[in-house]
Amino acid sequence: MYTKKVKFTSTGNYGCGPENEDDVYTIEEFKELVKAKMFIDYDGYGYPVKNNLSDRDIAIYPSGLDKVPTDATHIVWFNR
What we know:
Blueprint: E1 4-5, E2 23-26, H1 27-35, E3 44-50, E4 53-54, E5 74-79
Antiparallel strand pairs: 1-4, 2-5, 3-4, 3-5
């Protein structure tokens, strides 16, 4: 269930976005970064996002892209 507010004004910043904002990627950006091996499971995990809310019950790892819900629009990423 999408319940946790996610704060972002831009995506794909690779951890260098505006201060006090979450590190967020569109689904397509996230998939491209995983494909380029910019994110691997060791790096961290994310949660799916829809309507600026994340679902903390579904952890997304780069090796588990098939677990991204079809209604998700973004991934909020947490580096280790």
